[in-house]
Amino acid sequence: MRLFGTNGIRGVIGEDFNPDFLVKVGMAIGTYLEEGSRVVLGSDTRVSGDMVKSAVIAGLLSTGVDVEDIGIAPTPAIQLYTKNHGDFGIAITASHNPPRFNGVKAIAQDGTELPREEEERIEDIFFHGEFRIVPWERVGRVIPGGDANAEYVDKILSLVDVEAIRNAGLKVALDCANGASCFTSPYLLEALGVKVVTLNCQPDGRFPGHESEPKPENLRDLMDFVREGDFDLGVAHDGDADRVIFVDERGNFITGDKSLALIAKHVLGEGDILVTPVSSSRAVEDIARERGAKVVYTKVGAPIVARKMIELNARFGGEENGGMIFPEMQYCRDGAMGLAKMLEIIAKSGKKISELVAELPRYYQGKISVRCDNDKKEKVLERLREVYSGENIITLDGVKILGDDWWVLIRPSGTEPIYRVYAEAKSEEKLEELLKKYGREVEEIIASL
Ligand code: MG
Q: Where would you tag: which of 66, 202, 207, 309 has the fewest CB atoms within 10 A of its CB?
């Protein structure tokens, strides 16, 4: 049985996320830690934040650990504060999920998300109910939290060329999705001398502005706003602000792998390593090669990318969804650091963001889904590996088939009874052809088993 998914423990309030469950989660984490440990705990803006946090804290305290409650903060700010002040961290957040969800994300002392083996130790304690309940005189305390958000903004300011950004006189439209970045990104932009106009920058856990996933259909207001106004850049975060998505000065959505490639172009040097999941655009690899740097691919998942970066002492890393990892900041996805870096790039180049994007290699991407029962998925994967073994393939996560200027990635969904077929090519025609060909082949393989 599992408690942690790919991004912490997630659930729906009033269904699986109840106080009794959450107290036990707190007790399991507390038991896993040494008595007397200090847990840094923060949350996003969700309505249920206080309930979830109170229950988790009660469980933690009962095992004799102390909790420093830093209030509402972006996940990367909680991670940084954990690294600087705690023995362990907890982020109460469901990231980009709808408002009825919440989550508990565990953070290791070094600020990175807890590795899977450690999560399993917590799950063992949880499912066996073997909690360390301490006597009354050893029950933990809640320590008033320090200013994690200010510490976070200050650290970002120390890592970018503030002068260059100030001198560029930039104007930005910022959409915080009513989430945790309301407490950081507006202040970061102000400190950078950027003229900022805000949308959905009042914290509100009902997410009245739009759903908190920064995808085009949720960012229509921002795109219209930028298109009609005189802005250099539009910026959007997801609910817990570990990601950042950009809109160009004309109001066009910039996909996450384009911003990843753009930043890679400016931070990578000769001999550097960039780490990214197998699902990332070829544009990222083209850019890295152009800079004399090397790309190392991983399975899909930000914590996996972060751990690989530590192992290889990589210069930069990230995903196609706006999650970017800057080692000089910390080994986790960091939305506001990505924002500051993008401003620095625009400021120093003297170009429009649309021009910088136009200079990147151009690829077309698409995906389709094929139905596949969950219990068949493993078998299908084995068969796919056999069928495509004669091609140039990567089998880190699903099966990725590499062509000269295209690729196809076939992988099972972790949550739904489907296989996804992703493809990327230099032209729309080639993309359609790839999706059609491989979609049909995957269908045939599934039907044959
Ligand atoms: Mg997030």
A: 202
